[in-house]
Write a structure and sequence with these properties.
The protein is α+β, with helices and mostly antiparallel strands. The chain has a single domain, classed as paralog of FGE (formylglycine-generating enzyme). The strands form four sheets. A four-stranded antiparallel sheet has the order 1-4-13-8. It has a four-stranded mixed sheet with strand order 11-10-9-12, covered by helices on one side. Strands 6-5-7 form a three-stranded antiparallel sheet, with helices on one face. It starts with a helix and ends with a strand.
Length: 301
């Protein structure tokens, strides 16, 4: 049965790759004002996926690494898995592992490096890098929290796949690089037309939908408002004052990698229209998996 599932999702994945092997959209960087403090920041160019990661893509990753694909399907939906529906129940650590796995599949240098503390010969502690071939890279406790992840480094020179920073996510969602202003929702400023751009409680409220079902924003990006909450790389902070005049700002200062809250953006199929606004932000413990948590990837040129 596992072999059949692997071949089924491999077929979907290969077909998508054949149609468009790298369909990421180039977002031209620039200066813009960010956050409620209206701080001026500057972003470099980046590539972003037009769609959220699908169940078929996560199923391929899961089967390739000995995981259960149905981990990433809605538990409360009472419908069978659909390869084109977006993946859900993805926690932040899943997204990091998937990004590194996809980078290796596509021949890119992985962006993220995971480290654990080990006792050295003198009885002290040393840092040891964890690789996917190491069982400690995958080991989790009953709360879906990695047991051995003590530190994570982001290689800013690597061209592999990664999560967006909060600043990059909002810049792309609002359409600013094309419009020269920020839209209220991804694709529209009018709540009456939101139903054509976002899957949310006003037109759904049942489950996540297939990617690219509704209309895109002006940059050709789908579902940045609604459908699933999207993980960002940033540790949550209440204020952006420390971002003022910075280039590619991101908050990656954490007290504890395994429990420090990470940011989410976009709202979901189960949220009201105000939550789907590109200005709205949320944060939660990175280990949690819910039927409305997903993600999309970026890549540095």
């Amino acid at each position: 049965m596992k072999t059949y599932l692997y071949l089924f999702y491999l077929l979907i994945w290969v077909e998508a790759q054949a149609q468009n092997p790298d369909n990421f959209i180039l977002i031209k960087g620039g200066k813009y004002r960010f956050g409620r403090e209206n701080v001026m920041i500057e972003l470099s160019d980046f590539y972003i996926s037009p769609t959220e990661v699908t169940y078929a893509q996560m199923a391929m990753y899961a089967l390739d690494n000995g995981l259960d694909p149905q981990t990433f399907h809605g538990k409360s939906w009472n419908i069978p898995p659909d390869g084109e529906r977006v993946a859900v129940r993805v926690n932040w650590f899943d997204a990091i592992r998937y990004a590194n796995w996809l980078s290796e599949q596509q021949g890119y240098t992985p962006v993220y490096q995971v480290f654990t503390k080990v006792k050295n010969e003198s009885g002290g502690l040393s840092w040891q890098k964890l690789y996917p071939s190491n069982k400690d890279y995958w080991a989790e406790n009953a709360d879906n929290q990695p047991i051995s992840w003590d530190s994570l480094a982001w290689d800013r020179t690597a061209q592999g796949y990664r999560l967006p920073s909060e600043a990059e996510w909002k810049y792309a969602a609002s359409g600013y690089s094309k419009l020269g202003r920020k839209q209220k929702w991804a694709g529209t400023d009018n709540v009456d037309s939101l139903q054509y751009y976002a899957s949310y409680s006003g037109n759904n409220g049942k489950f996540a939908i297939a990617s690219a079902t509704l209309l895109p924003n002006p940059l050709g990006l789908y579902d940045l408002s609604g459908n699933v909450w999207e993980w960002c790389f940033d540790i949550y902070q209440d204020s952006y004052k420390n971002f003022e005049n910075k280039i590619n700002p991101v908050n990656d200062e954490y007290d504890n990698l395994r429990i420090s809250n990470r940011c989410l953006r976009g709202g979901s199929w189960d949220d009201f229209d105000n939550v789907a606004e590109v200005f709205f932000r949320y944060h939660f413990i990175p280990r949690n998996r819910y039927d409305y948590y997903g993600f999309r990837l970026l890549r540095t040129p």
